[in-house]
Amino acid sequence: LPWVETAGGHRRYPRDGVERLRNRLFGPHGQQADIFEQLEDLLEDGKGASNRDSTVVEIRCHGRAGQGLITAGELLAEAALRAGKFFQAFPEFGPERSGAPMEAFVRMSATPIHTHAPVLRPDIVMVLDRTLLDHGPVLRGTEDTSLFVVNYAGEPHALQAASQDLRRLDLTTVDASGIALERLGRPFPNIPMLGA
Do residues 85 and 43 touch, judged by C-beta distance below 8 A? Predict the structure, then answer.
């Protein structure tokens, strides 16, 4: 997807390019409209920002290469753009192979964002592959106020019972893989996770 870098180093995606991406992913009448409306509402209300700068919502996404983390970040960035907000969205990954653990970072704010580093103290953590909960980086920098959304078909207490570290977290689960297979016919949990 082509992008334009602004003077502040932010990426801006032309509206027609974003529309082409959405149509390619979902078709012209896809299910993504509700997701964008919810994200725009979140940005308008300023909810979710519990970190140092109350105007910045910081999201860290954990998953595996091929699950659509980069696309999820770009869709979150589009929601911020459509709401007239400032944003950052960028991935971080090691070996470029399908299934390798990776992270994506998103910041959204009503004011310019001057931090250009990975999200270290997230307001929201999205985990697209629950097996990554066993790895330290998922819990890194989280606070009691951090919201965790995990791709898991079971109840949150089942995950919390299995791990002492997860008991302190505000944890929500969604069967994103199941929803994706049912609705999209493909195992891409990124879009259902955004809806959650």
Answer: yes
